[in-house]
Batch of 4 targets.
Target 1
Amino acid sequence: MTSMFGVVRRIRRRHGRWLHVIVLLSLSACDQNDDWQKFSRLAAQPTTLSTLQREAIPLSEPVRALQAQNPDFINSELVSLGRQLFHDKRLSGDGTISCASCHNVQAGGDDGRATSVGMKGQIGNINAPTVLNSGHNFRQFWDGRADSLVAQALGPVVNPIEMGANWPEVLEKLSTDKVLLSRFETVFNTRELTPELLAEAIAAYERTLITPSPFDDYLNGNTRAISAQAAAGYELFKGYGCTACHQGVNLGGNVMQYFGAFHAVDVGHGQRAGNADKAGTIPVYKVPTLRNVAMTSPYFHTGSVTLLSDAVKVMAAAQLGRTIGDEDVELIVAFLESLTGEVPTHAMKPTQVTFAE
Ligand code: HEC
Ligand code: HEC
């Protein structure tokens, strides 16, 4: 039988120290065999523990720092192909719109509009969320209807008011591009384009849109990475209970919630949140990530609130049933601004495009 000591050592070797610490904490409650006692004595030695404490984000912290990305993956042909496709207007019916038209990765990963404008100037009915860090969301779309980035990417191309195309035509158009076909072959070992493989490349690129921010440095122990105001704002953010919903590595993206959990609120432009629909159901939305939120005005699925400070006040009233004073709102906004991250250079719009852009 494998000993507990061996198991823990293997977990540590494979998954690094932090998972090992978590496993250690959770196992300590349930296993008391000899190996385990030997191991816990070892782990309890002051040197080991003090090292852990100095480096560790306290386990009670509701927000986690982003992990560094694997350079082999971000520089892979797969990701590079996905980047090209993400910026390729041939994916739309009339060649005028790419994914990047509504998700500008260099400007917050969204389109800065209340609701998106698709092919032929058609106005959609919902705000475009950022694609930045979307790989950390448990589901995609405001209502969580796509369970992966691949499933998500198949949607916009054929959505009549987004890219208004159909797959047979898109595949036919792309199949005439010899350069693209040979890149495709390098990655997928076939020259036969399929929607699923195109979506897989796009999704791979999206998974690399990770934006480390000053706040991540702060969580990693650099107390001077953010201003005193931002640090105070983070304490308020936790203290008021925003982290009940905006938590984890994306400060959101991991749970569905009511908008208007406490009471229905007016969110401007004649929009109200928290009201039941005709069938009497109160809709739920994916709690959005707050990473880069200072770059993604206007706010909410309605796109009806322009100022971040107003969005914070709406949240306090709608989700927590309280009013937050201007001074605290300002500090929370300073904290939210510290979540603006750096877009990795590999993710930028391709400069050498091999297709009509
Ligand atoms: C016309 C504008 C438009 C275009 C073009 C567009 N999107 Fe979107 N995107 C949106 C809107 C609006 C939503 C939110 C829709 C919803 O939730 O119902 C969205 C949602 C998403 C999401 C989910 C993010 C989240 O947090 O839920 C991802 C990922 C995404 N789009 C990627 C893409 C990709 C990849 C393409 C190209 C294949 C693309 N988009 C093309 C407007 C657009
Ligand atoms: C009960 C869960 C919950 C709590 C608590 C909560 N939020 Fe939210 N938050 C949401 C949901 C759900 C949305 C999306 C609402 C919508 O547009 O449908 C949201 C949206 C936001 C947005 C807009 C993001 C965007 O991209 O449009 C900001 C900013 C925000 N919250 C900040 C806060 C702050 C600050 C607090 C604490 C004062 C807070 N939230 C508390 C669930 C919550």
Note: Residues 229 and 331 are 5 Å apart (CA to CA).
Target 2
Amino acid sequence: MQKSAQKIIVVLLLTLFLVFGAQAKLLVHYIDVGQGDAILIQTPQEKNILIDGGPRVAGDIVVNYLKEHNVATIDVLIATHPHEDHIGGLLAVLDVFPIKAVYYPQISHTTKTYENFLIKTNLSGAKRIQEKSGVEVEVDPKINLVFLAPEERNYEEVNHYSIVAKLTYGETSFLFTGDTEVINEEKMLENKANLQAEVLKVAHHGSRTSSSEAFLEAVDPDLAIISLGKDNSFGHPHQIVLDRLIQRDITVLRTDELGDIVLVSDGKSISIEPNDMMLVHVTPTGKKFHLVNCRMLRDNKIPLERKEALLKGYEPCEICKP
Ligand SMILES: [Zn+2]
Ligand SMILES: [Zn+2]
């Protein structure tokens, strides 16, 4: 073979490696919407999935967040259940973004907000699909997204209709729970649903009506995300739930303490995307900064913004990787 031909082949192989060799990333954004939930998932093949849209007052926050993160179309919209702190903000989202498919629970909940939501999804031209446990959402062949709840259609509580979805990418997985409660957790355990996940979105903003010991045992996460507003009137998160998480050595990340939380998966492991505004903690004598419940952190911890910690010469802890 001629030298020039060899050169071309080498360049071609290098290009192929650069295009296909590097593992594409999955991003999961837990958007700080105050008291409520809004989660944006950007898949390896650049599809956008939005789970809930926060309360109505956070509509603009969600719309701007999506714009800032290059979302032009929402491929899949999941409205976990009709409560205002989950679907209120979706009214603004539906006004701005084209939506390809909407998944929502079959429930007659006649608030004005839910009525508007149904009217707007109808007008949007999106494919409307009523959820069911066992449904697989086909959006990106690189990931698997499956619904594990709700099982039945005759609950009294609106929260019991919450869609619970499990997302798997390579060896990493995320569980999204909406406001599901213990009755649904028991049903999923009874069904032997595959609940294990590295990251758990703690159900119902850390309320004691969810996150039973048996459920946490089955999910067995490393990271728990709680989406909630500072000083909310419900007393969320409840201490008993925090205690259960901490006893299991689960790292707890809260939107009321950290603001937006972004997790990145390369299919093998999950990391937290550094956010300069987020609060980290240092000690009077240590040289590292930590997440609030890092086991390396002692009692006399001092909170400061991540960017300030870096300016002062602290380095991120290798255990909690803030
Ligand atoms: Zn809620
Ligand atoms: Zn709810």
Note: DSSP finds ten helices and 18 strands in the chain.
Target 3
Amino acid sequence: MGLRIVILGAGVCGLAAAYRLLENDPKLDVTVLESEDRPGGLARSLTVDGQVTDLGPHRIFTELPDVQAFLEDLAGGELETVQRSSRMWLRGGWIEYPPKPAEIARHLGIGTVARSGLSYFGHKAARLAGAGSSGAESFESLMTEAFGPELYRVLVAPYARKVWKLPPSELHADIARIRVSAGGLGQMIRKLFIPEKGGRLTAVKQFYYIAGGVERLVDKLRAGVERRGGRIVTGRQARSLRRRQDRTWQVNATGPRGGSAIYTADIMVSTVPVGDLLGMLLPLQPDPSIERMRGELRFIENFLVCFVVNRPQVTDAQWLYFPEKDTLFNRGYEPKNFHQSMGEKNTGMIVMEVTCHPGSKIWHATDRQLIRRCLHGLESTGVLREEEVRSTLVHRIPNTYPLYDLGYRERLEHIWRYLREFPTLVSSGRQGLFLHNNMDHSIHMGFRAAERILESPSAPAPPFYTEVSRFQSFRIVD
Ligand SMILES: Cc1cc2nc3c(=O)[nH]c(=O)nc-3n(C[C@H](O)[C@H](O)[C@H](O)COP(=O)(O)OP(=O)(O)OC[C@H]3O[C@@H](n4cnc5c(N)ncnc54)[C@H](O)[C@@H]3O)c2cc1C
């Protein structure tokens, strides 16, 4: 029998790791333990009254060549190219996204644009003259630097506050670097002053989607793992770890109705939230500072508020953005506009996303309250009328977005140092590395975990963690 490898979590990262291990060495003994009743993690789909939605629409797009080739092969011709179509609600009207600068100017009003331009160039001139600090560590300082104080105040700060529920001066600049630098709101604003050739802003104009939703892709990944001899055990939550004298691992995992089972491993890959993993390791190797930092790793949660309506289509857009504070939701999307297979012919569905901190007022809101507040916002922006709504559902996604506050990088550095002390355990994936990322990044990180195990089975973790800063530099290309 080959090495025993236990992988915690059957999201795309854990499945990709299992796939790559078995593809290279079919003799390996690979088990994936998943706490939910089916694989997929964040890349799962949900059915609401006959309509299907991903847990947040999962378009397929990558700049990583290894993942591109893998996905095309895995999907076997089922990836379909979709043209992007998004809109933004701004100052009482809709603008196309990505927008034309003239369209934004019309919506913001020429006074605001002129003031913003003056403030932007004034700020740049002051910088050249050496005024102020150039250290751009917070979201606020980076964005003020990029767009000027006025536009930052009018548009950027309210949206950041709305999504992250914290003052932008308390958010790390990486939030902007990961997302906005690749497109999104920030690029849109910058291009107000420096339009691109053709007068239109670049962003991803087309992407792949898979008929039936992202879980179809996960099904193919799961089937690939099982075909190569891997075991995927669902409904098993890893609770604690032990190390035996011979350095092997023992995972204690419980099922939904209690009862536990022990899994033995020579090597482990964990894709569960890194705080949960630390909770399992600290009893083996106590460290008070890691214990404290573990409590300081925070996530933002996302609620999906779904409205099924009695008409074939709600809007003609895939994504709708709501940067202003008068609506509860930040963003909405219409699954059928990603692919017709997502719903019945005469019925439509729109899904609104609401972010919140665990324990906050919104987090405690009842489903009924969330539905009412979202409905109010949808009516006031003219998206739908209450009498058209056939059914509703609220789905809560825990641990949706890692929250990058000002101290998060130093905290993670300490944590990686601590984890290096367990050379046969690799923590990877979005939750395992506390990364705000996309599926392609998680698949790549699963591959890299597998490749490190194949290269140096006696101690794959230290070389794996040398790649973390490269993973942190991945961008979500909007
Ligand atoms: C709203 C939203 C929209 C998104 N849109 C896109 C998009 O358009 N395109 C794109 O490419 N990506 C998108 N993403 C990102 C994508 O979903 C993630 O990057 C990817 O799915 C993360 O995979 P992962 O395997 O690293 O983590 P996860 O999917 O979080 O997997 C971790 C797994 O571990 C399991 N687990 C946790 N604790 C335990 C335990 N103790 N024992 C056993 N199992 C456990 C969990 O149940 C889960 O299945 C989006 C994400 C969100 C939230």
Note: Residues 99-199 form one domain.
Target 4
Amino acid sequence: MFSLPNTFPEFPEFPRGEVWLAGAGPGDPRLLTLLALHALSQAEVIVHDALVDKRVLALASSRASLIPVGKRGGQPSPRQRDINAILVEQASLGHRVLRLKGGDPFVFGRGWDEAIALADAGVYFRIIPGLTSGLTATALAGIPATTRETNPAVVLAAGHRAEDGSSRADWEALGRLGQPILLYMPLLQLPDVAIALQRGGLAADTPAAFIQSASKPDARVVETTLARLVEDATLNGVASPTIVVIGTIAGLRSRLRTYLVDWP
Ligand SMILES: C[S@@+](CC[C@H](N)C(=O)[O-])C[C@H]1O[C@@H](n2cnc3c(N)ncnc32)[C@H](O)[C@@H]1O
């Protein structure tokens, strides 16, 4: 472990009865923020998603109780309102509660729902951003989210949303937009999304890539095109967690040749 320079700003106190809603990044603990690391060392109760890497949880204080609330082994996920209730209850018991989510809590992570529930229940909370997997996976794969030559914008979109009536992207409109898309939770709706993007005007040979398990030991990148997305996902056994990148940026990494050193 490294030591911080003594010019480093002090970490805030973690008061009893408070909830810290933090992002754990895409997996590798070296991608945690220092504030999330501080929270792990101080928390008495850690309510975490299945996506939070074991190596991150291993950094928790040995006194902390871990409460998993993610979807595991095909079991149904706990309902959001039950998770909210756990957070409020644990805070009311006077614990220092860390709510740890994969990536960033406010990017396809239901962090907003929990923040509102805490505010409504009169519980003080802090939000600690994390590295979101879409932007981290692309960077680690050598795929720039933007370049001056290719795209002035980039779209973060969720391929699949929980069946809770939440809004869905208008894929044809995103196809017309012609800007690269970083697709979270891509696999369930991939065939429909790929067809709709082409119907909207994205060329069939638009470069695309699957980035699976970014920053984890089993990380891999599969390069393909929009037209071949579904076939190549099946041929290569692409599995969750995966980000799909669709757009010119997905084809740029070959220019880095072998000089991009493998993570870490
Ligand atoms: C419910 S969303 C949570 C996103 C998270 N809040 C974030 O900011 O990254 C879960 C999706 O994130 C993506 N994801 C999370 N971790 C990943 C990783 N290490 N590699 C690739 N994709 C990842 C996958 O698309 C996965 O289906």
Note: Strands lie at 19-23, 45-48, 65-68, 97-101, 125-128, 155-158, 181-184, 207-212, 220-225, 242-246.
